[in-house]
Write a structure and sequence with these properties.
Layout: H1 2-36, E1 37-42, E2 45-50, H2 52-84, H3 99-118, H4 123-149, H5 158-174, H6 179-198, H7 206-226, H8 228-231, E3 237-238, H9 257-260, H10 268-294, H11 296-306, H12 308-313, H13 318-344, E4 346-347, H14 354-367, H15 372-388, H16 394-399, H17 409-423, E5 431-432, E6 444-445
């Protein structure tokens, strides 16, 4: 009996080592001529340089991750078999509790002051990165309504982002309106375009729905690119006004923010103000989404996600359910686009390509469809992690002075997505809270929930 148990205990380790060795050899063959040898054009001609340090590092990383993945999978399989046989095993780590939301809120409120205190030399850079992450969090929460709650796969969400940005820019520059007036107008216009998109896709499901939404996003971008008289075409729109604090501008001259409050002028004040604007907009998005989930319309979204035929049999109007999901999700995308326009001061069609939709959808999927906290974690990891890669100076010590981490951003981005999907196929946050609670609140597993299949 002990011999059988020892063999069973060695099986996951042996299988993991064999699998890791095979993956290492395959990756070495693939990356030998892609990574190990690098060609550069010099005045004397084409020169081949060798990067063995980078090559062995990548190959070793593949082997280690493959070993961990196989070993954990085999161990999980044995634990599942033990549970099925009635053997007591340790329970997995519990899902993130309710306190996580409050902790993240405190971090978000105090982040600018933490950056100013601990990173005074790089405060502008880190605040700008925090604003970018918060923008993607808001976009992820808006798309989560369509994909995570209603189960409608949308690949053209960047179109509403663009409509909001251009609506704000055109209203502000042509009619001399302020930020706080143009913001709700841009959101309303984006919601209107969400309804326009919703009507053609009412009878579409799955892949067909994804194709139509993808085409809608490309149509919007091409219109913005070619309608020169209205959108200024590829030249974009510049001179977009900045937001003000009750009419007080963040300028150096008299009457500016620093002058009114008796402070020495510092451009960081405007970045802090922009950060808190996008933080408030994101919190409003989260609050409205969570409230709508508990209302009849939110329950109708989740019923539509699970089974459209059953949803109709219960007397739910699927037409209105889909239209409200597209409209509300588009509205929040329009709000984010308005903020993007006023933050940049310049917009062009090149800022609203398909890759933006892909990144937002990846944030929602990797975070866990339907999970608000999962979107936050995925945004910080994907957007913040990739941007921070530029500042990792120790990589130059390992791979040489000529190594530029920025060249491998998309490679690392794709590798991170593959790792997370292998490790957590249902997203980082795999538990859900039901909208309606009977007697006792219990979390449900993500494997029991339909996942954005366009039902």
């Amino acid at each position: 009996m002990s011999t059988v148990q020892s063999q069973a205990a060695e099986t996951p380790l042996v299988a993991a080592l064999k699998d890791a060795l095979a993956a290492t050899l395959i990756s070495a063959a693939l990356f030998l001529f892609l990574i190990a040898f690098y060609t550069k054009i010099e005045p004397g001609g084409l020169i081949i340089t060798q990067r063995w340090g980078l090559f062995f590092t990548i190959v070793a990383t593949v082997g280690v991750f493959r070993f961990l993945r196989t070993f954990l999978a085999e161990t999980h399989f044995q634990l599942s078999a033990a549970r099925a046989g009635g053997i007591a095993v340790p329970q997995p780590i519990a899902a993130i509790g309710h306190n996580a939301g409050w902790i993240l809120l405190v971090i978000g409120l105090t982040l600018p002051f933490v950056i100013l205190i601990f990173f005074p030399q790089q405060d502008r850079q880190y605040l700008d990165l925090a604003i970018l992450i918060m923008t993607y969090i808001m976009l992820g929460w808006g798309l989560n309504i369509v994909v995570g709650l209603a189960g409608l796969l949308d690949l053209g969400y960047v179109a509403f982002y663009a409509v909001g940005a251009y609506s704000f820019a055109l209203l502000a520059t042509n009619f001399d309106l302020g930020f706080w007036i143009c913001l709700p107008l841009a959101g309303i216009l984006s919601a209107f375009w969400g309804v326009i998109l919703g009507f053609p896709v009412l009878r579409l499901r799955g892949d067909y729905l994804a194709i139509v939404t993808l085409a809608f996003g490309e149509i919007i971008r091409i219109v913005l690119l070619n309608w020169y008289e209205f959108t200024n075409g590829p030249d974009g729109i510049s001179g977009i006004p900045k937001p003000t604090l009750f009419g007080i501008e963040f300028k150096r001259s008299a009457g500016g923010f620093a002058d009114v409050f008796g402070l020495s002028y510092d451009s960081i004040h405007r970045f802090i103000f922009l950060y808190y604007i996008i933080l408030v907009l994101a919190l409003v998005t989260n609050f409205v989404t969570m409230r709508l989930r508990r209302l009849p319309v939110g329950r109708a979204w989740e019923a539509l996600r699970e089974d459209e035929i059953a949803c109709r049999s219960l007397g739910i109007n699927t037409t209105n359910t889909k239209l409200t999901a597209f409209a509300i999700g588009a509205m929040f995308g329009g709000f984010a686009g308005s903020f993007f326009a006023t933050r940049q001061g310049f917009i062009s069609p090149e800022s609203f390509t398909f890759i933006e939709s892909a990144i937002i959808l990846a944030i929602v999927v990797l975070g866990g469809l339907g999970s608000q906290i999962g979107v936050v974690i995925a945004s910080v990891v994907m957007i913040g992690g990739i941007e921070m890669l530029r500042n990792l100076g120790f990589l130059n010590v390992i791979f040489g002075d000529g190594f530029d981490p920025g060249q491998f951003r998309m490679l690392i981005f794709g590798l991170a997505m593959v790792i997370i999907m292998v490790w957590k196929p249902r997203g980082l946050i795999t538990s859900r809270e039901p909208s309606a609670v009977l007697k006792e609140r219990k979390a449900i597993g993500a494997d029991l929930v339909a996942q954005g299949e366009g039902h």
